[in-house]
Design a protein that fits this description.
With 134 residues, the chain is α+β, with helices and mostly antiparallel strands. It is built from two helices and seven strands. Strands 1, 2, 3, 4, 5, 6 and 7 form a seven-stranded mixed beta sheet that branches. A hairpin with a 3-residue loop joins strand 3 and strand 4. It is globular and about 45 Å long.
């Protein structure tokens, strides 16, 4: 089972906004995020995904294609497939940087024809989590 990562969808205002950013890199074949350090468990992430946090909930994932070191400053690129796969919304507290996510803790992908609107909105999920009801 692959290991995954979670990261805040910084500056995205909606899943559509995040999807648009990812798809804008489709002609390049990949989207890239920059991180200061190579994840120590990067080898376990073969076949894994980066799960995006928006409004205190996991809302989608992008498959991880690999990691590549930038030559100019030693930072690393997280190479992602330029797509957003919708997942069942799952409450997740915001954090800085990225965190690991085990496969058994990852939310399931939405089935074909299943609408993300059928799933609890992220803000409502966060509020119910804050109240201890989810």
């Amino acid at each position: 089972m692959p290991l995954h990562m979670t990261k805040i969808a910084f500056s995205a205002t909606s899943p559509a906004d995040l999807r648009e950013w990812l798809e804008s890199h489709a002609d390049l074949g990949e989207a890239r995020l920059t991180t200061r350090y190579l994840p120590t468990r990067h080898e376990e992430m073969a076949g894994g995904s980066l799960y995006w946090i928006l409004e205190h909930a996991l809302i989608g994932r992008s498959p991880i294609l690999g990691f590549e070191q930038r030559q100019e400053d030693g930072r690393w690129h997280i190479r992602l497939a330029p797509q957003l796969v919708a997942v069942e919304t799952k409450p997740k507290r915001a954090h800085q940087g990225w965190r690991y996510l085990k496969d058994e803790d990852a939310p399931r992908d939405l089935a074909a024809g299943e609408d993300a609107g059928d799933i609890m909105p992220p803000r409502l999920a966060h509020e119910l989590m804050r109240l201890g009801l989810v």
